[in-house]
Write the structure tokens for this entry.
Amino acid sequence: MVDLNDIALFVHVVRAGSFAAAARRLGMPSNTVSRRIQGFEQHLGVRLFQRSTRRLTLTSAGTTFYERSAEQVEALVEAARQVGEGSQLASGNVRVAAPADFFRWFPVAWMADFLADHPKVRLEFLLSDEKVDLIDQGIDVAIRGGLEADPTQVARQIGTVRNALVASPGYLASRGTPVSIASLAEHDCIVASKTAGQTVWKLTGPRGDEEVVVIARFQANMMHPLLDAALTGVGIGLLPTTATAPYVEEGQLVEVLPEYGTNVAGIYLVYSSRRQQPRAVTEFIDFTMAKIVDEGFVHPLSTSRAKTR
């Protein structure tokens, strides 16, 4: 095996013009440089330099070897330089898993801002309400509501999400507005798909925890059809404020019994390891955490801004 360090040393000696000059540039003893070049020649079985007391010149073999190796050595040095700079400048592809409705409440414009600030970063999103395997899918970071303990992963909790009762103004105009938890039983309701049986909503309000059996008029296993059902007047939904807040603000949805709701899930950023994360991934994690908290999409943790498991 040829030692690439010896090839690089050979190129330095040729450019410096002598062992002593190369040694000074490299911060090495002159006799060490001479000895390594001699050993390299023995390894190759060919003389690369003609030595005299006055000058050092290349042999024919040395000239050919230099012409073929100098450019490659420069390329390796440049590659190392770029890698070093890359560790300081975010670059590369970041693959993100997020809920199917993520961009309904996290504006794509914010991602445009992130990409503008990091021109060498590329973002790829896998949007699904199904839990994906980070390793199998090549995911750098996942944004998840709720969490199952996994000792092989790092989970940074951002905060918690509140579920609120919402309905369209049109639905409330035609069916009336509930005045109590019990009156919800008289309304059409929008619920996440579940096994057969009664649908029971467990709500927390001024009198503590209360339960009510509701009529599941519309069910779906993903968030965006549940939200669409509420917007089109199908019934009353118990939905995350992350999804409903923009529509409440615009008047397309109205909070029903606003003093009641549930804090049912934490919001987490999940990734495989905290060690040797690419700069692009850490920049994305910090940016996303700040946006989600600062824009009020979650209820911040009381003890700290974010908690790591």
